């Protein structure tokens, strides 16, 4: 059993590190759609393995419980970011929304169980991660039941936000593991950097879209 646990850990770490490198490459190729799509797909494959090995570690080997929060966040926003670019202006399906509800419920129940159990965990990091999950999941549900027509043209901004959030979750887990003596800052700082990147890239895309509209008008 210990051998399987070790193999699971090395697989998790290896593909997590690979996802960080591939995700950065995909970001650098943002203006080359074919390359961006290719490396973005590789990033999602790695993310899927990271999420799967984290889930195995928690269920069978009782790994660090905080990994579940990052697993829920990274896995869900990665999936939702993929769906945003696949659907574009089409409406999400009922299956998508049921998955959203399930993930949100799992996050709330797990945070509550950690609170009752006590132990060595950081409320700042856990609640900020849960809030990020709730923000994305709540937006997806609100868009599905009410505001789809008004928000459907935001699909590219959604994709940027969600995929960078998935990257942020992996980076936070990596830095928190490599630099345990600097928690919670080693986990919070990557989130601050990625939020800054989200703001920049959304602003960049919005400015490009505005310039294109101005050219069409004039």
Q: Features of this protein?
A:
218 residues, globular
Task: Describe, in plain words, how this protein is organized in 3D.
The chain has helices spanning 2-28, 33-61, 66-87, 94-117, 123-151, 155-178, 185-217. It is mostly helical and 218 residues long. It folds into two domains: 1-63; 72-217, no CATH class. The model has no long low-confidence stretch (mean pLDDT 84).
Question: What secondary-structure arrangement, pairings included, does this model have?
Answer:
Blueprint: H1 2-28, H2 33-61, H3 66-87, H4 94-117, H5 123-151, H6 155-178, H7 185-217
Helix pairs in contact: 1-2, 1-6, 2-3, 3-4, 3-5, 3-6, 4-5, 6-7
Return residue spans where pLDDT drops below 50 for at least 5 consecutive residues. Answer: none
Helix content: over 70%
Any idea what the radius of gyration is?
18 Å
Strand content: under 5%
SS-based structural class? mainly alpha
Helix and strand element order:
HHHHHHH
| Count of the separate structural domains | 2
Report how far the terminal alpha carbons are from each other: 68 Å
How would you characterize the largest beta sheet?
none
pLDDT averaged over residues: 84
Tally of helical segments: 7
Global outline: globular
Give the tally of β-strands. 0
């Amino acid at each position: 059993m210990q051998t399987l646990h070790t193999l699971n850990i090395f697989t998790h770490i290896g593909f997590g590190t690979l996802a960080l490198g591939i995700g950065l490459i995909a970001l650098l190729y943002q203006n080359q759609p074919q390359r961006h799509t290719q490396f973005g797909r590789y990033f999602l494959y790695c993310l899927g393995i990271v999420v799967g090995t984290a889930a195995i570690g928690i269920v069978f080997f009782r790994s660090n419980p905080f990994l579940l929060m990052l697993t829920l966040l990274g896995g869900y926003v990665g999936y939702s970011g993929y769906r945003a670019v696949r659907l574009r202006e089409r409406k999400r399906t009922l299956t998508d929304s049921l998955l959203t509800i399930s993930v949100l419920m799992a996050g709330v129940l797990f945070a509550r169980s950690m609170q009752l159990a006590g132990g060595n965990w950081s409320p700042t990091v856990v609640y900020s991660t849960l809030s990020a999950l709730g923000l994305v999941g709540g937006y997806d549900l609100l868009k599905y039941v009410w505001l789809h027509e008004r928000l459907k043209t935001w699909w590219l901004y959604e994709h940027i936000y969600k995929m960078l959030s998935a990257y942020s979750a992996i980076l936070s887990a990596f830095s928190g593991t490599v630099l345990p003596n600097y928690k919670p800052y080693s986990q919070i700082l990557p989130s601050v950097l990625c939020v800054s990147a989200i703001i920049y890239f959304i602003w960049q895309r919005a400015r490009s879209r505005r310039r294109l509209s101005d050219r069409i008008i004039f």
